[in-house]
Design brief:
- This protein has 180 residues and is an alpha+beta fold.
- The protein folds into two domains: 3-76, RNA 2'-phosphotransferase, Tpt1/KptA family, N-terminal domain (Arc Repressor Mutant, subunit A, Orthogonal Bundle); 97-177, ADP-ribosylation fold.
- 34% of the residues lie in helices and 18% in strands.
- It is built from six helices and nine strands, in the order H-E-H-H-E-E-E-H-E-H-E-H-E-E-E.
- It has helices at 3-19, 36-45, 52-61, 103-112, 128-135, 148-153; strands at residues 34-35, 67-70, 73-76, 97-102, 122-124, 141-146, 158-160, 166-168, 176-177.
- It has a three-stranded antiparallel sheet with strand order 1-3-2.
- Strand 2 and strand 3 form a beta hairpin.
- Helix 1 (3-19) crosses helix 3 (52-61).
- One of its GO terms (biological process) is tRNA splicing, via endonucleolytic cleavage and ligation.
Length: 180
């Protein structure tokens, strides 16, 4: 499969598994799962055809491992704007996690901390490199350091998704370190 086709399928999956399943007539269960055949059939009915083999390739080769296929079902690993319970257990985070953003957002973050915005949770990266890539999607990346160990000790709950993205409800400003 050519890279452009893979990106098109991945973006289609993100839109319908994370944000608008009803647009193509699928219903996600409480944890965000939908049977693979149901997804493929619904996409075809709405003019976007892909095969099971293409789907398997996109899921396996996705650089961010955004999707999981298990027991004949598929779901997005995180990033939902619709109500789902990913059923992830609380996890003890490493001492520091990272968040990639852009300069125009820094003033608000200094004041309000990190909020989930339209998503269910704040997404944090386990390393600077990943956070840099995330921030660079919207411009020149600014990488913030999150004192996750101190947050955890203060009672904040963390979860880690299947693809290693750390999730938490919010990050208050006092737990953030900004680059000079």
């Amino acid at each position: 499969m050519n890279p452009q086709r893979s990106v098109r399928i991945s973006k289609y999956l993100a839109k319908h598994l994370r944000h608008e399943p009803e647009r193509i007539g699928i219903t996600l269960d409480a944890q965000g799962w939908v049977p693979v055949p149901e997804l493929i059939e619904a996409a075809a009915r709405h003019g976007f055809r892909f095969s099971r083999a293409e789907l398997d390739t996109v899921v396996a080769d996705n650089d961010k491992q955004r999707y999981t296929i298990e027991d004949g079902r598929i779901r997005a690993n995180q990033g939902h704007s619709i109500r789902v319970d990913l059923d992830l257990p609380p996890a003890e985070p490493p001492a520091h996690l990272f968040h990639g953003t852009v300069a125009r957002s820094v003033a608000a973050i200094r004041h309000e901390g990190l909020r989930p915005m339209s998503r269910h949770a704040v997404h944090l990266s386990p390393d600077r490199e990943t956070a840099t890539r995330v921030g660079a999607r919207r411009g020149k990346a600014v990488v913030l350091t999150v004192d996750a160990g101190a947050m955890h000790k203060a009672g904040h709950v963390f979860q880690v998704s299947a693809n290693g993205v750390w999730l938490t409800a919010r990050v208050p400003p006092e737990f953030l370190r900004f680059p000079d």
